């Protein structure tokens, strides 16, 4: 008879690779924007699994989709297609600029596919010299070796040997820095419309429009990484819709599955044709379970009620943060849009975002950081006003704790 395993935080240190340092508490149940740990303590969730839990925990539409599909079909491989994948692809195409969809399991995989596609597109249409990718400092595009190198944070890509070449980094929101780098050897510009891990830094409208124009002038593709900004998080289904700038390729994940692993790359028919049969793939990509859940997420989120609600919730967040800041004077500004917000610490508290993050947990609130200077909030898109205000009361106590030392 197998002995029952005692699940404690200490077990993590015994059996898990130490690339993470999770909190001491272990959540066991969630409902909406609330989570309970092993001890029965309740938390308000302003983190959303890092902008993933778009409809909170155990949303009935997602639970029902998962249960229903689980009794039908789980996995096939891409030797065969399946109904949920085709329905989800059709809905994504109908709702965006895209004409073709590629499914995978994560944001990193979606970006990996996008970066391989821009290189293949350039090789097919031009020659081997047109392979350079322009990205931006402080950007983040995933943890595969290709995506982490395109990302603009060397600390994530250093220490693993020779990096993929023909990747250069300009300064975000500085169009002149891009003009200094772009040439006929450029195959693509890759950009987050709002930099997430880099500090919740929105792209200027003129900057993003300028990137579109530069790509058109130099026969390069514009890739929008919307892994964190997509699926309603900014009050539009995708953030590009806020700017009036249409990319050639868009990547999406996180909120797309509401917590179930799924990612997608969206593009046009003309560009998609360069990923011919056998050039790229994913064993689990587009599996029926993931696509059924993602379809339910899209159906629920892509409505005027939810998207307008995201902007109403943003206003409540900003109001509460302004009240906290009026008393404690810790933030220089609040950046971001919708349910992707960053409270930027002022000079007095610079470098101390983790202290606020830890204090929040002490007071029953899950928050995030975006670097050492920004406290990040990425909750459920359908979080209630009561939950926001209760969470902000707890955050106010956490801020007071840090301020008082």
Automatic annotation (TrEMBL):
GO terms for molecular function: transaminase activity. Belongs to the class-III pyridoxal-phosphate-dependent aminotransferase family. ArgD subfamily. PANTHER family: AMINOTRANSFERASE CLASS III, SUCCINYLORNITHINE TRANSAMINASE. Keywords: Amino-acid biosynthesis, Aminotransferase, Arginine biosynthesis, Cytoplasm, Pyridoxal phosphate, Transferase. Binds 1 pyridoxal phosphate per subunit. InterPro entries: Ac/SucOrn_transaminase_bac, AcOrn/SuccOrn_fam, Aminotrans_3, Aminotrans_3_PPA_site, Class-III_PLP-dep_AT, PyrdxlP-dep_Trfase, PyrdxlP-dep_Trfase_major, PyrdxlP-dep_Trfase_small. May also have succinyldiaminopimelate aminotransferase activity, thus carrying out the corresponding step in lysine biosynthesis. Its EC number is 2.6.1.11. The modification N6-(pyridoxal phosphate)lysine is found at residue 254. Its main location: cytoplasm. Homodimer. It is found in: Cytoplasm. The keyword Methyltransferase does not apply. This is Acetylornithine aminotransferase.
